Amino acid sequence: MGIAFESLYSDIAGRTGRLTVGKKTVKTPALLPVINPHLQLVTPKEIQSMGVEALITNAYIFSQSRQYRQRALDEGLHKVLDFDGVIMTDSGSFQLSVYGQVSITNIETLSFQRDIGSDIWVPLDIPTSPESGYETAERDLTITTERLAEAKEVFGKEAPIAGPVQGGIFTDLRKQAARNVTDLDFTFCPIGAVVPLMESYRYRDLVSVVMAAKQALTPSACVHLFGAGHPSMFALATAMGCDLFDSAAYALSAKEGRYLTTHGSFKIDELADLPCACNVCRSLTAAELCGAPDRERLLALHNLYITVAEISRVRQAIFDGTLWELVDERCRGHPQLLSGFRALLDRTDSLEKSDRVSKRRFFYRGDESCFRTEVVRYQQMLSRLRLGKTVLIAFNGGIRDEFDDTLFFKPPFGPFPKELKETFPVGQSEIPEWDDAMVTSGCRGIRCLIESHPGSRFVVSCKPCWGAIVCRELGAIEVRYDEI
Ligand SMILES: [Zn+2]
Questions:
Q1: Displacement of CA 213 from its chain's centroid (Å)
Q2: Could you tell me the distance, in angstroms and rounded to a whole number, from the CA of residue 300 to the centre of ligand 1?
Q3: Nearest by Cα to 34 from 71, 85, 75, 88
Q4: 56, 81, 156, 448: which has the highest count of C-beta atoms within 10 A?
Q5: What separation, in Å, do the N-terminal and C-terminal C-alpha atoms of the chain show?
Q6: Are 136 and 168 in contact (CB under 8 A)?
Q7: Which letter does DSSP use for residue 127 in this model?
Q8: What pLDDT was estimated at residue 1?
Q9: Which strand (E) or helix (H) includes residue 106?
Q10: What number of other Cβ atoms are within 10 A of residue 23's Cβ?
Q11: Distance between alpha carbon 260 and the CA centroid of its chain, in Å?
């Protein structure tokens, strides 16, 4: 049966696609809600009615449960959970990371997952804590790789087995782990042991390890970010190329009285109003929800609605080519998310390769927009312009006959010939009044042009207020000041 992944639309490194497991398909990006059979605030049937096509549960809990083990073996997981979509099972690695040991072997857990009819099986990989040192991370990775090889050998190439990417906080080990799963022909690759990073808001480190893993994974691999469940970070993770998320956050938060939103979580007893359009929030006041006898269940329902809706919003942003804008918007919700966003922008050069050529629009949203892939790609493309011996770059327009060529200027991109005036990104970009950051970025574009045309002489004409930036960025270039 195997696992196959097909990408349909892409934006940055994110993609919408189709995950096929046997005869079942799942639209991606997708959220797999975590189901604990002993704690079902919302039933799998109800979750399916929200449009969820896949969920994840823990095979280790089933294997250790007097109540569920035999039923799962006799009736199958889908019947026990009353869910006919894709069910992925985790192996017990999570328990391993929390308790330090589990009473099951790699082959035992995979056999059990097979026998209860799971659609996607996870081997007993070793989740390395971000606090672990290099030697521990390396040793853990060796064991994980041996177990993945063992899984392929025992169950065959076509078995629907996930190949987790571990390696702790070390980017070279994450890359090595990604190369290992690629060499072993895994097409479904969860990035593991990142929950402690997300719980402590270490989004910069999260970007670092995910991007390291993505660099060495084949583009045809479906990438699952293990344990990522807060809606505020789906856009950021998708932009890095993650296709699947799984979340117990909706239920765990509900038990703690927390109300999830796309820009953070709130204590329900501190909310005066409910900023959401779901059935729960439209039929109750904040005070009624706070005091409801079934508050945990109602909060879990709201938390799921908001989470599933955000996944749809991410898919639409990819379709439109506006994912950078959604990432920017979401990452304003917490300073550490903003730090993660900036870490991602530091890697624009590698993201640019997978980004699409044309998009619906480019909205300038502040300094960070200057480092987006569209700007970097446009500036690289300037080397292809054919120019004469003398070139005027006119910030405020106006052609002067004394020059062979006149280019215009649109920050944050830089110079452009009139033929590109209507094309993306120059023609489909909206910017507010010019600011220092965007003009500086545009000057970087001029510098790319100058460096790639050593036979041409360049002159910039601009208002006096931009002279200092032009001189700072472009050194000895001739500047003429106009008063237009
Ligand atoms: Zn709601």
A1: 13
A2: 10
A3: 88
A4: 56
A5: 68
A6: yes
A7: P
A8: 59
A9: helix 106-115
A10: 6
A11: 19
CA–CA separation, 404 vs 254, rounded Å?
67
Angstrom distances, CA of residue 254 to CA of 35, 271, 278, 289, 345: 14, 14, 15, 11, 34
Mean pLDDT confidence for 269-274: 96
How would residue 447 be classed by pLDDT, with cut points 50, 70 and 90? very high
Q: Per-residue pLDDT averaged across 153-179, rounded? A: 97
Length of the chain: 484
Measure the CA–CA gap between 437 and 440, rounded to whole angstroms. 5
Separation of CA 323 and ligand 1 centre (Å): 24
Q: Report how far ligand 1's centroid is from the alpha carbon of 260 (Å).
A: 9
Tell me the CA–centroid distance for residue 231 and ligand 1, in Å: 13
pLDDT digits (tens, 9 = 90+) for 170-222: 999 999 999 999 999 999 999 999 999 999 999 999 999 999 999 999 999 99
d(CA 196, CA 381): 41
pLDDT of residue 93: 77
Residue 369 pLDDT > 60, yes or no?
A: yes
What is the average pLDDT score of the chain? 95
The Cβ-side half-sphere exposure at 164, using a 13 Å CA radius, reads: 31
14-21 vs 24-28, strand pairing mode: antiparallel
Does the pLDDT of residue 307 top 90, yes or no? yes
Count other Cβ atoms within 10 Å, centred on residue 117. 16
Q: Which contiguous run of DSSP H or E holds residue 238?
A: helix 234-239
484 pLDDT exceeds 60? no
CB 332 within 8 A of CB 339: no
The residues annotated as belonging to the active site are 90
pLDDT for residue 483: 60
Protein residues placing their CB within 5 Å of the ion ligand 1: 276, 278, 281, 302
